[in-house]
Specification:
There is one protein chain. Helix 1 packs across helix 16 (408-419), helix 5 crosses helix 6 (114-122) and helix 10 (274-285) crosses helix 14 (376-388). The mean pLDDT is 94. The protein folds into 2 domains: 2-236 and 407-419, Glycogen Phosphorylase B (Rossmann fold, 3-Layer(aba) Sandwich), CATH 3.40.50; 246-405, Rossmann fold (3-Layer(aba) Sandwich), CATH 3.40.50.2000. Helix 12 (331-340) links the parallel strand 11 and strand 12 (344-346). It is an alpha/beta fold and 420 residues long. Helix content is 41%, strand content 13%. The strands form 2 sheets. It has a 7-stranded parallel β-sheet, with helices on both faces. The chain has a 6-stranded parallel β-sheet with strand order 10-9-8-11-12-13, sandwiched between helices. The protein has helices at residues 11-26, 40-45, 60-70, 76-85, 89-99, 114-122, 159-173, 178-186, 246-253, 274-285, 315-318, 331-340, 353-362, 376-388, 390-405, 408-419; strands spanning 2-6, 30-35, 49-52, 105-109, 126-130, 207-209, 226-228, 259-262, 289-292, 307-310, 324-327, 344-346, 366-368. One of its GO terms (biological process) is carbohydrate metabolic process. This is UDP:flavonoid glycosyltransferase YjiC (YdhE family). Keywords: Transferase. InterPro entries: EryCIII-like_C, Glycosyltransferase_28, GlycoTrans_28_N, UDP_glucos_trans. It comes from Armatimonas rosea.
Amino acid sequence: MRIVLATLGSFGDLHPFLAVGRGLVARGHTVTLASCPQYRAKVEAAGLRFAPLRPDAPAPEDASELARKVMDAREGTRTVLKDWVMPVLRETYADLAAACDGADLLVNHTIVFPGPLLAQKTGLPFLSAVLQPIVFFSEYDPCVPPTTPRWQGFARLPRPLVRAAYRLGWRMTRPWLAPVDAFRAELGLPPDPRHPLIEGQFSSRGTLALFSAALAAPQPDWPINTVQTGFAFYDSLDGKTEALPAALETFLASGEPPVVFTLGSSAVMTAGNFFEQAVEATKTLGCRAVLLTGRDQPVPPNLPASILAVPYAPHSRLMPRAAVNVHQGGVGTTGQALRAGKPQVVVPFAHDQPDHAARITRAGLGATVYRDSCTARTLAAALQPLLRDAALQERCRMVGEQLQQEDGVARACEAIERGH
């Protein structure tokens, strides 16, 4: 079968599709991954065919300003949709149509809005793929909306009020996606009153929920024919199985498990003083730490011997050896932290991250420190009980064992084969 996987966004959006693509290739399928042009080398190194899908990353001189806007707590989601995706909707459609020429099936990411349009226009079978539980906007399992990242009151509201609040939010955000309606008319497709980011993205053929029930369990109002696969893990830079850097391996072996601090692949570009505050927090607690500071990002100066900074390390190899993992709450990072079986402190920046932070905290698997109040004092206050709470540590260990038994890639591949 000839399958196209289409995704846009950060590594958190790319990696699950890489994992599923590799699984499909191993099962004998021909797979093309269509994504931002900047990912060509990474995709091809993973052994998949690549097709460019605009928009690409901004020019270096514009990247930091866009990153600041994209990771803004309240306006980030609007920026991604209205300012990054919508202006090149027609170009994305043209790229996707070229990638899907001769394909038997499309597996489509949430914000690849031309996917459902192309499927309707050409008759190409497609499956929708969801990486985060927030995308389902379930009345039974209310989320933390991106536009109100600190408000977790939805979880305590009766369902009719949740439904009313969702509908208000959908009306407010619908104009952001008006270009989808205009382009639909240009293609000669009938009008569709559905919200392209809500009901309009899902395929009646089926939807892949590419996350574990440990993060969010299935709900009665999920789309028809949804298959929850579990996480599809991938965290290699070059498509090969990677060992930890030698200096990091030596550091880990030389003392007690450290607190690991990471901001994933997007939030790290707007880290601000996060790592400096992390250093002071660990000094206060007297514990060791590893800082994953990102490539080409500044490293705090004059680090003591108890703290090591490295640009990158595979989360799947480092996080299980941590005492606590502190991260931004991206879905890929959250999944890796859950599988590691260790407590978490989530410092959410934007988008789905506040929702994941709330889920981790409600489940008794860690704590939340909001970005605008993230200081050495608040980090230390969140970390201290996690380092001592044996019952919480045991809950985390059990969840880790559960995820280690899941095979999200295999389940996703099986669902794709059935969906065709």
